[in-house]
């Protein structure tokens, strides 16, 4: 099968076009004209080392030439829009062979579908197969987003000799840390909606039970997420995914998850990596930690010094309008064009200026412009504690909670609230994906800020801009009447018109306060110092704005409710109401540690 290009670009137009961001004065690439007629070979067999055959569609320029190869591996079908065709046609029409493969056990490929489990070896075997084909020049790169990005990390971890570079977008680097949980907080809406609802079998499932609302429990996702215990939910929508039961049975970071992590093996990555993602993406940690990890620990100087990162104000894909915010025209970046420039440099050796520019590009919300940096986290960061305080009545938006650069007094009165798992704080914005039961992204928090089970701490009005760029965390001194509970934190930008826009968040399951590899229940009433990882942000709090922090114990259904009973995860329907107390004094200075960055 052949696709013909209707126009051929003159040689002098082959160089990549550029988009100039007026806010920051630097250039992002835009699409260059296609210049190749292409052919497609469907259902090409690729044998794996254990004899299982995976099938791919191969797109390549017409003729007998040898070309650099881009490999992309998907569980979503090489034939199913919108993931099919687009990237394959784009890159093959610009001088690349493109191998688009169904992963093991999915769609046309043989074997058993076990998410994430076989992508290390299968990625290696596919890259090496592509390198020796008669249409290949032996140089192989990988591209794709989400699951298609994670498999690149796994392939690079296995170090196939012919892999030159990878370009993972919106991709996880540790399935436990930034897919299944955050600090042990179970991503209920995404895990259930992506897992058994959509991916139970060889063929991507009908999403009806995932999207139909208002019907009987068996077909209403909005009702199913309330069901307890969690390990019975699958049956309500007619699913029986063994891997989902395994996920529930492994709530700690044990060997089951360790074997799927790249983060502890960044030292095995020998090729330059270009990560790309958004601060409101479910896998923002993978974008940030992936770049930082390879830059610091990569196995070669090319990996350490040649890796790049672009991170914007996006969710699970590039967009100008995200949640309740319009970030302006400079927020839009052409993903394929950016990747093309990367591959042209690393796979074709084109001197396109890539080597001369800073490797990190971060969109700063509030200023709504890009900043170019040499590293992440930024070397000039000053980590400044902003302290929580109140007169003991911080519950709700009309409470007396404050934020200050000065420590509270010794006699500061703690705040308490009642967390009832039967009445959790509804998810409103944040880092999620794919329209799974919750509205993600930056959202106005005022609809939930009146609740007494949300402690609200707010600064004075800012007189000067404050740029907060990098990883951040909430250091919380807290106690509970329960043996186990959750604490949730949000960093919020309060606009002069009253809008209260979330810019970062985190959650901690208290039984994991001493580490994710073990569980230690709480002694009711005992005050513990806990750290809530809030991943990262890039937000400029402008003059006239205020900084706000939320502290609560639920974020449902994005995260499964902690039932406060200390029983094994996912097995109980016995919910206990807990009284939570947050301490803020000179002795117990609860604070958010902000990465403040100067010019």
What does this structure look like?
By secondary structure, the protein is α+β, with helices and mostly antiparallel strands. Helices cover about 20% and strands about 30% of the residues. It has 14 helices and 30 strands. The strands form 7 sheets. Strands 18, 19, 20, 21, 23, 24, 25, 26, 28, 29 and 30 form an 11-stranded mixed β-sheet that branches. The protein has a 7-stranded mixed β-sheet with strand order 1-4-5-7-6-8-9, with helices on both faces. Strand 10 (about 180) and strand 11 form a beta hairpin. Mean pLDDT is about 90; it is low at about 1-25.
How do the helices and strands line up, and which of them pair or pack?
Elements: E1 2-3, E2 18-21, E3 26-29, E4 38-47, E5 53-61, E6 67-74, H1 86-92, E7 97-102, H2 119-131, E8 136-145, H3 147-158, E9 163-169, H4 175-180, E10 181-182, E11 185-186, H5 188-199, H6 208-211, H7 221-224, H8 233-236, H9 242-249, H10 255-258, E12 274-278, H11 284-297, H12 301-306, E13 308-312, E14 321-322, E15 325-326, H13 335-346, E16 360-364, E17 369-373, E18 382-389, E19 401-404, E20 415-419, H14 446-449, E21 455-458, E22 466-470, E23 473-480, E24 486-494, E25 500-509, E26 528-533, E27 537-541, E28 546-552, E29 578-583, E30 591-596
Parallel strand pairs: 6-7, 6-8, 8-9, 12-13, 13-16, 19-21
Antiparallel strand pairs: 1-4, 2-3, 4-5, 5-7, 10-11, 14-15, 16-17, 18-19, 18-30, 20-29, 21-28, 22-27, 23-26, 23-29, 23-30, 24-25, 24-28
């Amino acid at each position: 099968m052949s696709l013909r290009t209707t126009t051929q670009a003159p040689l002098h137009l082959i160089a990549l076009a550029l988009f100039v961001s007026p806010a920051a004065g630097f250039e992002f690439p835009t699409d260059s004209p296609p210049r190749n007629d292409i052919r497609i070979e469907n259902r090409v067999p690729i044998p794996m080392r254990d004899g299982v055959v995976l099938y791919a569609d191969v797109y390549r320029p017409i003729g007998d030439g040898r070309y650099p190869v881009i490999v992309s591996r998907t569980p979503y079908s090489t034939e199913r829009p919108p993931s099919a065709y687009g990237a394959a046609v784009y890159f093959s029409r610009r001088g690349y062979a493109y191998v688009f493969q169904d992963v093991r056990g999915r769609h046309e490929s043989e074997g058993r579908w076990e998410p994430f489990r076989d992508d290390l070896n299968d990625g290696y075997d596919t890259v090496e197969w592509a390198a020796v084909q008669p249409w290949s020049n032996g140089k192989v790169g990988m591209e794709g987003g989400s699951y298609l990005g994670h498999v690149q990390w796994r392939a690079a971890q296995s170090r196939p000799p012919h892999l030159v570079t990878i370009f993972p977008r919106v991709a996880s680097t540790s399935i436990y840390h930034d897919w299944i949980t955050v600090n042990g907080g179970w991503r209920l809406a995404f895990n259930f909606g992506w897992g058994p609802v959509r991916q139970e079998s060889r063929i991507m499932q009908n999403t009806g039970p995932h999207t139909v609302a208002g019907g009987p429990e068996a077909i209403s996702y909005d009702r199913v997420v309330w069901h307890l215990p969690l390990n019975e939910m699958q049956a309500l929508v007619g699913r029986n995914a063994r891997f989902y039961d395994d996920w529930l049975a492994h709530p700690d970071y044990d060997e089951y998850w360790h074997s799927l992590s790249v983060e502890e093996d960044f030292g095995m990555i020998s090729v330059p990596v270009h990560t790309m993602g958004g601060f409101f993406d479910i896998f923002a940690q993978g974008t940030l930690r992936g770049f930082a990890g390879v830059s610091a620990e990569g196995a070669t100087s090319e990996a350490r010094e040649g890796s790049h990162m672009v991170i914007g104000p996006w969710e699970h894909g590039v967009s100008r309008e995200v949640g309740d915010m319009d970030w302006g025209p400079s927020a839009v970046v052409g993903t394929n064009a950016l990747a093309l420039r990367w591959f042209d440099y690393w796979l074709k050796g084109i001197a396109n200026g890539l080597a001369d520019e800073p490797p990190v590009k971060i969109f700063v919300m509030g200023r709504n412009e890009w900043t170019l940096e040499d590293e992440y986290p930024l070397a000039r960061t000053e980590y400044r504690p902003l302290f929580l305080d109140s007169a003991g009545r911080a519950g709700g938006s009309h409470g007396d909670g404050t934020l200050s650069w000065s420590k509270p007094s010794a006699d500061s009165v703690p705040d308490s609230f009642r967390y009832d798992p039967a009445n959790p704080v509804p998810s409103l914005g944040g880092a999620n994906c794919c329209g799974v039961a919750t509205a993600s992204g930056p959202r106005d928090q005022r609809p939930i800020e009146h609740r007494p089970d949300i402690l609200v701490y707010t600064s004075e009005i800012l007189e000067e801009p404050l740029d907060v760029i990098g990883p951040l965390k909430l250091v919380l001194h807290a106690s509970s009447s329960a043996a186990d509970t959750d604490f949730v934190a949000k960093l919020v930008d309060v606009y002069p018109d009253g809008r209260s826009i979330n810019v970062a968040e985190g959650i901690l399951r208290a039984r994991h306060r001493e580490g994710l590899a073990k569980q230690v229940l709480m002694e009711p009433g005992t005050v513990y110092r806990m750290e809530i990882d809030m991943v990262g942000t890039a937000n400029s709090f402008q003059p006239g704005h205020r900084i706000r922090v939320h502290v609560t114990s639920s974020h449902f259904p994005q995260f499964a409710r902690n039932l406060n009973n200390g029983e094994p995860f996912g097995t109980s329907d016995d919910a206990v109401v807990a009284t939570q107390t947050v301490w803020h004094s000179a002795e117990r200075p609860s604070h958010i540690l902000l990465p403040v960055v100067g010019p």
